[in-house]
Amino acid sequence: MPPAAGPGGLGEGNRWEYRYIDSRNGRTTSRRFEITRVDASTIVERIELENGKVLTATHQGGAYLSMAGGMQFAPYYLALQTVAVPGPLGEIKVLGGDACATRVAAGGDYASVLECVVKAEVAGRDRVTVPAGTFEAVRVRVTILSQRPLGRARQHIGDGDYWISPQAGRLIKATVQYHGPYPWTETMELASMTPAAAETQRAQSPVLAAMRQPATATLAPPPDGVLLGDLLAMGGRKLSPDETRAALTSGTLRGVTPDGAVVVASYSADGRVTGSVNGNDMADGKWRIDGSGRSCVDVWIPRYRRTYENLCRYWFKFGEALYFPSESDNDANPGARMSKRTLTPR
Predict the structure, then answer these.
(1) Which of 172, 74, 193 is nearest to 127 (CA)?
(2) 21-50 residue pLDDT tens
(3) What distances in angstroms separate CA 208 from CA 22, 41, 189, 298, one per listed residue?
(4) DSSP string, 49-83
(5) Torsion angle of alpha carbons 74, 76, 81, 83, nearest 10°?
(6) Residue 272, Cβ neighbours under 10 Å: how many?
(7) Is it the case that residue 116 has pLDDT exceeding 80?
């Protein structure tokens, strides 16, 4: 896998080169982006286009569409934005240009630029292969609409899919499709990346590393159903066997099952587990840590009228909340949905 270059590792001199394809002329060219300045909330980059033109773009946290160097959804979203939970982001701003720069035809009712409305959503996570390698990435879907003056009907201008990787530190792929009488597409794929010099990364990383701390210190833990990949991207981490044992025996766990039942469980250092499901006590069970670091439970649960044997799971932590894969004990699938448990210290 390519070396990690996510939050805490970006600095002046980080450089990305993309293969750019425009379907209107069928040509494949190169575009280059290089960080020239980094601080706690801003990344400034130099952009070299295929025609020799040089641009400067400034990026901050949040969701937006940048028109500098090609239509891109917040290319440093996972460096300046710690949360990437799937779901709608609503209407977003367009910076550095106009995504709907299409004028009404001459002789028509109006002669003004169409109003642009851009909506975005975090659509999930994918494993994406581009010329630079294979990456785990967050996929963002963008829909571009226009509306004529005085409330005329909206037109569907285009759609964009964007993949942003915490490993690469930046957008790794973009595919934008423009609709209309003469549809066309533009594609950007990461071809290579060059990290900042070691001394620059060391100088810059404390600043960007500080940006990650709120993910485990002040941000609210994500809810039930968060994807494992998003939990890790936000700053969550997998617990070691010793950390799992210490966490489970330090208090009482509370949470909700996928079918809506309220679960309370207490793990004792002597290997017993007790608790309740919707207020109904479950018989004493036994638990242990197996050779792979999972907690494994054998217990009778009256609500489901069955004994669970060798029910094993890996544990993850974000802030003071604990998480485990809700449908399997897989600790490597970024698309696994996680169940959340709050911990009340004894």
Answers:
(1) 172
(2) 999 888 899 999 999 998 878 899 999 998
(3) 35, 8, 25, 44
(4) -TTS-EEEEEEESS-EEE-TTS-EE-TTHHHH---
(5) 80
(6) 13
(7) no
d(CA 243, CA 290): 13
The token pair at 12 is 């002046």
99 pLDDT band, cuts 50/70/90, is low
Q: Specify whether the CB–CB gap between 217 and 319 falls below 8 A.
A: yes
- Nearest-angstrom CA–CA distance, 18 and 173: 9
d(CA 174, CA 151): 31
Range with the poorest average pLDDT among 13-22, 171-180, 227-236, 333-342: 227-236
d(CA 175, CA 87): 20
Cα–Cα–Cα angle for 58, 112, 143, nearest 5°?
50
Residue with tokens 């299409």: 102
For residues 44 and 31, give the distance between their C-alpha atoms in angstroms, rounded to a whole number.
Answer: 16
pLDDT at residue number 191: 94
pTM, two decimals, is 0.56
